[in-house]
Amino acid sequence: MCLIVFDWRPDAERGPLLTLAANRDEFFRRTTAPLDWWRDAPHLLAGRDLEGGGTWLGLSRDGRFAALTNYRAPRDVRPGAPTRGALVAGFLTGAALAPLDYLREVAERGAIYNGFNLIVGDFRRRELGWYCNRGEAPPLLVRAGTHGISNAVLDTPWPKLVRKRAELAELVALDREAKLAELIELMRDTRMARDDELPATGIPLERERALSAAFIETPDYGTRGTTALRVSAHGARLAVEIIERSDDDGSHHVVRPGGVERRFSFDIAVADSVR
């Protein structure tokens, strides 16, 4: 996943704690299972990378959340490195560690992976943590506000991140309960940045231009799916709503641009919260 923007309100007594919109960018040849409950981990709701076995974004029935983006450093890529998607699945299927505890464990072995950003959260704790294995900051808890992650560290001002973060902030300011379909449409934006706005990440200029769009379209690579997520407080429960719009209905026949939608909702009990 290559662009995530989110509004985080951990102190909200009622209404949204997290409003998130995310695009996953990947090669079209890489087979993927769409968003669903996993058969081998029935409490886990996520898509699945069928080559690496992990995922890019997911939630658990007990209120945990995780998502990943790759860190763009082409000269630093090692073909034999372990799959980064296992870091998302590991948080959601492993022992119920606090977000910072899990990220600190990841940081101890972070050098063995290619570059990544990892955000993990526990909604019952009202905690959301972030770590990048190519950044200088240690694992940290994300402060309240509107944020974005692309293929550099948290809130790096790449044009598409700045634009989509601002649009999300404007949308939730106007309507805290904005429809998830509006979040999906916000991310389906194919506009590219001007050349003078582009970051220099070590890839050819033509490729840098193509990847500057929020919604990427190239012959072999692009935005494979868009996810919109809201987690809201309602007294003694948290309500989860999630939509994925993707290019694959599960048959692994890619259709561009993706229009296959899957929707899920469920509640998380917080009466026995660990806060």
From TrEMBL:
It comes from Trinickia symbiotica. It holds the Pfam family TANGO2. InterPro entries: TANGO2 (IPR008551). PANTHER family: SER/THR-RICH PROTEIN T10 IN DGCR REGION, TRANSPORT AND GOLGI ORGANIZATION PROTEIN 2 HOMOLOG. This is NRDE family protein. The lineage of its organism: Bacteria, Pseudomonadati, Pseudomonadota, Betaproteobacteria, Burkholderiales. It comes from the Bacteria.
